[in-house]
Structure to design on (543 residues):
């Protein structure tokens, strides 16, 4: 009996050993990298290099972005936090629009009023479909009378080159203040294409503000090289653009899929 | 006939001149208030470390519309909500954060999140005007608990009197965001803060949000509660002594937001 027990114990030991070794192999296969955000210095250099770039204060955005980036965040939480961040971006865009002075009357006396120079209707939010449409929810809460333009640009899966499909812009867009929106700025290919379309319609660069949640240095440099007079406002600048797939890292994943709920959570990690 | 026409002409022009004179006299009675300049504001910020004033570029165009006596209820509410949202996001960004490592679809990153759960945050509104903050507050922090303190200012003495309170049982364990749109003498806010103190809430855990304030009110609060934080959208230059109203101010915020006084009565009703 003692011999049998010993044999049993040995077999169990072997099985256990095999299990431990196998599970280690599986974990080492999906050992993901740890990405570190840009330091204050690096961000400063970026702001000096591009005068027309604004990066939102870290305090305002990091706790919201931390929740959005997390792969496990469910769709309700993702949408809620995306909306909060988009609202902060939109208020910043309006704060930077040209203002005009006038004297107005409060219940107790006169004061110098400083208001946005343009009426709601003179502002046009141009969204780069499909992800850009996420901005329209909060955008219309802030600027109820704004006109909306839409440009459909999709990235070719293999070449990563942007492809233009469709556009619908206001007739008088060349007279309007444009707020161009797209949640991610990776290579800058899509944004560049959209900006060229706006130029063809007679829109001046100084009248364009581009809003994006997460961007990277390459995208920013490309857009500013081709359109130096536009303004860009971003919530955070990610350190890396992964070359093979042209995705930002750590990034948010595919913003459109996550906001519109078109990909199930468990396939998100695999689908790159 | 020509004489009659001439008489009519002269009478009309006399009437017109009288009208213009009277109108200009009436308009000249109201003073023009000038906002504090960058230097004054900087001094204020140096004096009070726990004071934050939201950047002018975010707030002046919104406040310009809110202050305007011609602004209707819909516009007033919409712009107040925008400003309140900005204040609340600022309050949350100042709450203690904690770090840990999380996973994005592509890899790990350093997550920096608010240390407290929604439920550990309590919005305490000083009724009735403070309730205006709750709409946007709950949009930003949907799981927060709400506390209410009813304090009304006595019409004759201008002193606050406490009427009612309903606060969470465990408020001493919570991060409290106290809200009241205007901070004038600071009497109502002080009363509310004393009530919170009695319930065991620590000063460091209190942030007071207000749209428009003045130096006197800010000083009074910090003198008695130096460790709390105050976040304001704009600091008005004057506190009118007779009515204890801020100038240029917003008028009576509660009446304008909740639509309980007709626009035409706003100028007349100085109290």
């Amino acid at each position: 009996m003692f011999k049998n027990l010993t044999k049993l114990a040995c077999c169990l030991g072997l099985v256990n050993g095999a299990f431990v070794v196998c599970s280690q192999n599986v974990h080492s296969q999906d050992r993901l990298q740890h990405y570190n955000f840009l330091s204050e210095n690096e961000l400063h250099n970026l702001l000096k290099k591009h005068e027309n770039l604004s990066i939102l204060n870290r305090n305002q955005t990091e706790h919201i972005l931390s929740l959005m980036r997390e792969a496990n965040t469910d769709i309700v939480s993702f949408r809620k936090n995306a909306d909060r961040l988009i609202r902060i971006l939109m208020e910043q865009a309006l704060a930077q629009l040209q203002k005009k002075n006038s004297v107005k009357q409060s219940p107790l006396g006169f004061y110098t009023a400083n208001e946005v120079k343009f009426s709601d209707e003179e502002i046009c939010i141009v969204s780069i479909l499909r992800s850009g449409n996420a901005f329209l929810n909060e955008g219309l809460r802030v600027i109820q009378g704004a006109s909306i333009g839409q440009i459909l640009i999709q990235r070719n899966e293999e070449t990563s080159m942007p492809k233009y499909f469709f556009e619908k812009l206001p007739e008088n867009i060349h007279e309007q203040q444009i707020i161009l929106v797209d949640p991610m700025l990776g290579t800058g290919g899509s944004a560049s294409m959209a900006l060229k379309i706006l130029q063809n319609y007679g829109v001046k660069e100084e009248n364009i503000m581009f809003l994006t949640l997460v961007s990277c240095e390459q995208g920013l440099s490309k857009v500013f090289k081709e359109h130096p007079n536009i303004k860009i406002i971003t919530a955070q600048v990610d350190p890396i653009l992964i070359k093979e797939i042209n995705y930002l890292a750590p990034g948010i994943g595919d913003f459109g899929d996550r906001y519109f709920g078109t990909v199930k959570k468990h396939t998100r990690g695999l689908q790159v | 006939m020509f004489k009659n026409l001439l008489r009519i002409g002269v009478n009309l022009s006399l009437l017109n001149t009288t009208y213009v004179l009277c109108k200009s006299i009436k308009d000249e009675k109201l003073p023009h208030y000038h906002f504090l300049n960058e230097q004054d504001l900087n001094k204020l910020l140096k004096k009070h470390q726990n004071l934050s004033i939201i950047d002018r570029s975010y707030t002046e165009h919104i406040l310009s519309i809110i202050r305007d006596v011609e602004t209707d209820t819909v516009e007033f509410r919409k712009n107040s909500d925008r400003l309140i949202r900005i204040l609340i996001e600022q309050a949350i960004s100042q709450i203690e954060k904690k770090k840990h490592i999380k996973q994005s679809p592509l890899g790990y990153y350093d997550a920096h999140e608010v240390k407290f759960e929604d439920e550990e945050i309590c919005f305490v509104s000083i009724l009735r005007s403070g309730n205006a903050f709750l709409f946007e507050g709950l949009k930003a922090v949907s799981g927060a608990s709400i506390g209410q303190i009813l304090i009304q200012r006595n019409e004759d003495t201008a002193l606050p009197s406490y009427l009612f309170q309903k606060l969470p049982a465990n408020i001493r364990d919570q991060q409290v965001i106290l809200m009241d749109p205007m901070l004038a003498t600071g009497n109502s806010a002080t009363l509310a803060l004393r009530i919170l103190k009695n319930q065991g809430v620590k000063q460091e855990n209190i942030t007071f949000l207000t749209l428009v304030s003045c130096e006197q009110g800010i000083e009074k609060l910090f003198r008695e509660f130096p460790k709390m934080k105050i976040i304001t959208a704009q600091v008005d230059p004057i506190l009118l002594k007779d009515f204890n109203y801020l100038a240029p101010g917003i008028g009576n915020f509660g009446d304008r937001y909740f639509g309980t006084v007709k626009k035409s009565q706003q100028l007349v009703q100085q109290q």
